[in-house]
Amino acid sequence: MTITKITAPAQVTTSTEYGPVVLNFKDGQATHEGELSGGLRRYLEGKGYVVEAEAEEDLDDEAAFAAGLRVAGLQPEGQPVPAAPQGNASAEAWRAHAVARGLDEGTVADMSRDEVKAALANLDADQKQED
User: What pTM was estimated for this model as a whole?
Assistant: First the structure.
């Protein structure tokens, strides 16, 4: 998996949303699983951020989560699982929710609302089996 490292021009600790991409900065550093779109990369670099795609690594889920990457089914301690949108919400809202829950953005990008809801139901079932 490719990991993109983003360094802010200042030592900030914040969560910033750029469309479907959410970057969680801690002490001016954020990581993102996969590569950023060309437009987002140019925007960030134009604002003084340093964007570096690191070599592909084969991390297990726990190591990826520890590195600050979103991993399906794992939430930071003390943070609840994000609330689901209303059942009739748009497919876009459900895709954003699925990504916030840790599903891969590329995987859900072309899914319908019902397909995303089914993928989340499978994720929840897998989590219950692990517990």
Answer: 0.43
